[in-house]
Amino acid sequence: MPSHLEIAVGQYSDKGRKETNQDFYGVCIPKEPQLSSKGVAIALADGISSSDVSQIASETAVRSFLEDYFCTSDAWSVRKSAQRVLMAINSWLYAQTQKSQYRYDKDRGYVCTLSGMVIKSTIAHIFHVGDARIYRFRDKALEQLTNDHRFWVSQDQSYLSRALGINPQVEIDYLSRPV
Fold it and tell me: What's the pTM value of the predicted model, to 2 decimals?
């Protein structure tokens, strides 16, 4: 076994049936000493299809998470740092909607789902809001680590019950797993 963590990154996204791809993702692998003190940050956001500006929300959420996480205090835990950053992102996105023409229709505002991970030392710290999933692939099997934040109205109809930017406050799922 190697004495240090090695990470290989591959990324792909497709717009699917929509006109615009509302996904955004990224990875930040800093140089030392930040690599040891803060770890590696990874994020994926997906805009909501009812909004024409949610691709802006997705890109803003990922870029801000990857940049701002590394600006938090080294005295803070990974959990505290990431949650504070995500709460700030949520506040900014919500404010953008409130200042826009979409203020009375939050399903058209600056809203996105986000799943993020910080790998520090031997622990993967997972942060999740919405339905962009994180899986673990081990022993040739996929294990879903995050739960979708969806409210099912019927067997065929559901809506997001949690997302960044949809409300002034956000509840963020957190879990940690050994790598």
Answer: 0.91
